[in-house]
From TrEMBL, chain A:
The gene is gatC. It comes from Solimonas fluminis. Keywords: ATP-binding, Ligase, Nucleotide-binding, Protein biosynthesis, Transferase. Pfam families: GatC (PF02686). Its EC number is 6.3.5.-. Allows the formation of correctly charged Asn-tRNA(Asn) or Gln-tRNA(Gln) through the transamidation of misacylated Asp-tRNA(Asn) or Glu-tRNA(Gln) in organisms which lack either or both of asparaginyl-tRNA or glutaminyl-tRNA synthetases. The reaction takes place in the presence of glutamine and ATP through an activated phospho-Asp-tRNA(Asn) or phospho-Glu-tRNA(Gln). This is Aspartyl/glutamyl-tRNA(Asn/Gln) amidotransferase subunit C. Heterotrimer of A, B and C subunits.
TrEMBL record, chain B:
GO terms for biological process: translation. Belongs to the amidase family. GatA subfamily. Heterotrimer of A, B and C subunits. This is Glutamyl-tRNA(Gln) amidotransferase subunit A. It catalyses: L-glutamyl-tRNA(Gln) + L-glutamine + ATP + H2O = L-glutaminyl-tRNA(Gln) + L-glutamate + ADP + phosphate + H(+). Keywords: ATP-binding, Ligase, Nucleotide-binding, Protein biosynthesis, Transferase. The lineage of its organism: Bacteria, Pseudomonadati, Pseudomonadota, Gammaproteobacteria, Nevskiales. The active site is at K76, S152, S176. The keyword Nucleotide-binding applies. Pfam families: Amidase (PF01425). Signal peptide: none annotated. The keyword Nucleotide-binding applies. It comes from Solimonas fluminis. Its EC number is 6.3.5.7. InterPro entries: Amidase (IPR000120), Amidase_dom (IPR023631), AS_sf (IPR036928), GatA (IPR004412).
Length: 95, 485
């Protein structure tokens, strides 16, 4: 499986990554090589094998529905790039 | 002082032969003098370290504290530390100061009383096998500064190997504790998945990530791992079961221990000089009464391809949180919200992280999910089943940690696939979730060689016992690199 620079730009768009245009060509070559390595998986015989998402066959632990964490809005907003009146600022979304 | 074991340091501190302040100052001085050659620390926290040392001295003076109180450590810069930058070696988090502590930071620092010397360099977001993807520059191997220390925990191993910390924390997603430990003559252990809390450890691939320790002996590692381990309600994948005593069983005989040698780990691709060191170690363990059986882990050749689907898929989801809005790097060039995301992430992430995000996005995308991700999850079960069957016959599995000794800086940076193949022997343990460790077993051309021990679920004590018994009859782990004695 090999990816063209155009496909790399598409994947980058899906991943919300702005690529340095000078790297797109190199990324295409490298990612194609990685997918070639990964392609070995297609030869594995997996009929009837259940997918394994996690090493411990555990179910999600539940806890009582009680408040356990204090409000830390100020601490969290203190490390944000741009806030105002307790809100996170982003560029204007609606004209 | 920097040649003493953790046990000796603890005894000396309790006997007031020297204070924690003096010990901490000694390490800070060594970091200042020697680290410019290695670049193992991203941030040195001298003031906090001395304040914590004074607090430890006060505890010791009151007759309080435990075996680790007053012994300084280095923290891999992947663990959140309140008030100190936690960068994950990424431009994305260059100015990130965590509002909370990771659970292991609390356990080792606040509870056990270990002063933190600083935050250790690593591959960016723990993605790499050479510590060359760090935003803060590569780490050099103290055994040969023209070579890599391995990765991703390159700063952790370089610092401990060079005597710039008595011990350090590290993390292992596909070999990031064991491969660097092997390349720098250290003992490093990745415990069973779920044994050490992941709370406050910046996520890379959540079903594989596990924290552990790098140290100068199995005995040192056992003491620190003991203090890190345990159930944590704040980590939903933490195992709610008691922690075994890791220290007391170290002295047990290994007479009758059944060791498996997986054929696939001794096939083509393993360097002959490394092979000779492993064979020597097998001979030593036989003298200690261990018996050896050849066995097969038939799906292990598929562990690297499986990993490079599962890990990037999980990484692309985990790293979606970095959006330039709530914390981390925010581009100054964005004109709208979409550009804010794309430019912040384009500027904040380095090339290896970008590659893995793109692979993850691709394998999870519509039309490819079944062929890549679902198939990888099925092969993951085959790999897991291989180990389950093997541990019906043997107590531990032994093999090499890496195919060869440390390579030159820059040798593999343009070829991700050859870099990824570094982890061919280590990845399977992460996919299966079992504990595994690396320990020194010789030298090739003056460079350290490591052997790997893998155990069944929650068999950390057994692995450390075998390693400790081996270290009682061999001296490889006591060697230090020239210029850092």
């Amino acid at each position: 499986m090999s990816l063209s620079p155009e496909q790399i730009r598409q994947v980058a768009k899906l991943a919300r990554l702005e690529l340095n245009p000078s790297l797109t060509e190199a990324y295409a070559g490298q990612i194609s090589n990685i997918l070639e390595l990964v392609g070995q998986l297609s030869a594995a015989r997996t009929e009837g094998v259940g997918p394994m998402a996690h090493p411990l066959e555990m179910t999600q632990r539940l806890r009582a529905d009680e408040v356990t964490q204090p409000d830390q809005r100020e601490a969290f907003q203190a490390i944000a790039p741009a806030v105002q009146d307790g809100l996170y600022l982003v560029p204007k979304v609606i004209e | 002082m920097h040649t003493l074991s953790i046990k000796q340091l603890g005894e000396a501190l309790r006997a007031r032969k020297f204070s924690s302040r003096e010990l901490t100052q000694h390490y800070l001085k060594r970091i200042e003098t020697l680290d410019p050659q290695l670049n193992s620390y991203i941030t040195v926290t001298a003031d906090q370290a001395l304040a914590a040392a004074d607090a430890a001295d006060a505890r010791l003076a009151r007759g309080e504290g435990g075996p680790l109180t007053g012994i300084p450590l280095g923290q891999k810069d992947i663990f959140c530390t309140t008030g100190v930058r936690t960068s994950c070696a990424s431009r994305m988090l260059d100015r990130f100061i965590s509002p909370y502590d990771a659970t292991i930071v609390k356990k080792l620092q606040a509870e056990a009383g270990m002063p933190m010397l600083g935050k250790l360099n690593m591959d960016e977001f723990a993605m790499g096998s050479s510590n060359e993807t760090s935003w803060y520059g590569p780490v050099k191997n103290p055994w040969d500064v023209t070579r890599v220390p391995g990765g991703s925990s390159g700063g952790s191993v370089a610092a401990v190997a060079a005597g710039l910390a008595p011990v350090a924390t590290a993390t292992d997603t596909g070999g990031s504790i064991r491969q660097p430990a092997a390349l720098t003559n250290l003992t490093g252990i990745k415990p069973t998945y779920g044994r050490v809390s992941r709370y406050g450890m910046i996520a890379f691939a959540s079903s594989l990530d596990q924290a552990g320790v790098v140290a100068r002996s199995a005995e040192d590692a056992a003491q620190v791992l003991q203090a890190m381990s345990g159930f944590d309600p704040l980590d939903s994948t933490s195992m709610d079961r008691p922690v075994d005593d890791l220290v007391a069983p170290l002295g047990r005989s290994i007479q009758g221990l059944r060791v498996g040698l997986p054929r696939e780990y001794f096939a083509d691709g393993l360097d002959a000089g490394v092979r000779a060191c492993i064979d020597g170690a097998i001979g030593e363990l036989k003298k200690l009464g261990a018996t050896f059986t050849e066995l097969s882990l038939p799906n292990s050749p598929l562990s690297v391809p499986t990993y490079y689907v599962v890990a990037p898929a999980e990484a692309s989801s985990n790293l979606a949180r970095f959006d330039g809005v709530r914390y981390g790097h925010r581009s100054a060039q964005a004109k709208n919200l979409e550009e804010l995301y794309e430019k912040s992430r384009g500027e904040g992430f380095g090339p290896e992280v970008q590659r893995r995000i793109m692979i993850g996005t691709y394998v999870l995308s519509h039309g490819y999910y079944d062929a890549y991700y679902l198939q990888a999850q099925k092969v993951r079960r085959l790999i897991y089943d291989d180990f389950r069957r093997a541990f019906e016959q043997v107590d531990v599995i032994l093999g090499p940690t890496a195919t060869d000794v440390a390579f030159k800086l820059g040798a593999k940076t343009d070829d991700p696939v050859s870099m990824y193949l570094n982890d061919i022997y280590t990845i399977a343990a992460n996919l299966a979730g079992i504990p595994a460790m690396s320990l020194p077993c010789g030298f090739k051309d003056g460079l350290p060689v490591g052997m790997q021990l893998m155990g069944n679920f929650f068999d950390e004590a057994k692995l450390l016992n075998v390693a400790h018994q081996y270290q009682q009859v061999t001296g490889w782990h006591t060697q230090s690199p020239k210029g850092f004695e």
